[in-house]
Amino acid sequence: MVAAVKKVVLAYSGGLDTSIILKWLQTEYRCEVVTFTADLGQGEELEPARQKALMLGIKPENIFIEDVRDEFVRDYVFPMFRANAVYEGQYLLGTSIARPLIAKKQIEIANKVGADAVSHGSTGKGNDQVRYEMSYYALKPDVKIIAPWREWSFESRNKLLAFAEQHQIPIAKDKRGEAPFSVDANLLHSSSEGKVLEDPAVGPDEMVFQRTISPEQAPDKATEITVGFEKGDPVSINGKKLGPADLLAKLNQLGHDNGIGRLDLVENRFVGMKSRGVYETPGGTILLQAHRAIESITLDRGAAHLKDELMPRYAELIYNGFWFAPEREMLQAAINHSQAMVAGTVTLKLYKGNVIVTGRDSPYSLYAKDLVTFEEDGGAYDQKDAGGFIKLNALRLRTLAVRNARAKS
Question: How many CB atoms lie within 10 A of CB 24?
Fold first, then answer.
């Protein structure tokens, strides 16, 4: 017997699965359903989601569709890139970083309309259920969470389709058969998983890729661009100021045209299994290289190395769903502090899947040519000082060597 629920806010895409969930909530919980659809730059028209929700009996005042692209990039993507966050050395966390924003909006709507529950369409095998629900609990500790894929009795896709037909939910022709793989997309990336991609020994077909042309098909001439930064965030491309979402969209197009940002990855899910995914992050791949380049001349060595030590922990927190946890916020405060003088421009060449840094300049540069030059430096650096520096650092090694030689004799 299900717990009593009066009103639930559903993260609703308008697709078949979340439409089935919507109707299942109505029939199983007999509650009022409120839908929330976020425009995260997934590249799909969202008005059909409104029409489908209306067709399924949702009141107009209970349908929320919001363009959150600028908020997504400004308050989630850019803070993450200030940390140069990469999970397990490769993954730029495109799906992970979108979930806390969706969850936050659901809780805001729940508070606004007086809902006592929230719901999502993530399966019981994946990471997204964790990311959503950790965020829900952090923002509304007493909220009721409904996770249909962990509750309902549908044992096959045929039974899901039968439920859809029973309740007059439209089923597109391409949805009646098994989809060759599943796709999740937003302005930062697209991810493809499952079905034909489940064998990690078999390379993906070209049809899997949606955000990039292949490096082989990319132009034979490099594209040169300049990215401008202020306080660690990109603010311009080729001298033109752009808002957060427009800037990332422009980088995405440049990455697309040059075959940049493809990743075939086997990752370790938080729930315990390994998963193979094919990801495309064209703009993010460019941004990561550009940000590291501007940091290379503006960050002190100690700050830069400490950031690199903290980054894997920070990335893991985002991957595992702890965006709203105090430890992530503590790390973010330190990272943000480090970015105060990370400003200037980076010049890059984009060529057949490669991002090549060719120049970096900043009014706050710590690079001192008179210190590193092979020519006369005017006394800026006394090379004789290096001898004492080396001897002091080698003292413990010399002491160990003497002790070890004595032990052998």
Answer: 21
